[in-house]
Amino acid sequence: MSGLRRRSERDHPNAFNRPVFSILKAAVDRERKCGKIICPIQSVLIVDDEPDVRLLLTREIGDHGYMVDSAGDVTWALEELQKKHFDIVFSDVRLPDR
Length: 98
Fold this sequence. Notes:
Layout: H1 19-33, E1 43-47, H2 51-63, E2 67-71, H3 74-83, E3 88-91
């Protein structure tokens, strides 16, 4: 990792405000309240056309133990969804190809 430094929220203060983790935590907590975890969240798909945001979210979520894949546009995301099942998808609202 020589010459590389990890990006943090300070690098992108408006791009990443921790709501993703709140959503993941709420889903897991809801399953635990029921006394069983029927379908634990393990795999996540990030869809964003901005490479920096996509990379930041992928690394941060992956660092919390989730298997993360990413896509840069809707077509790419649909291809990923056909190849694999994802427990949750986080997507940018405005993507260039839709």
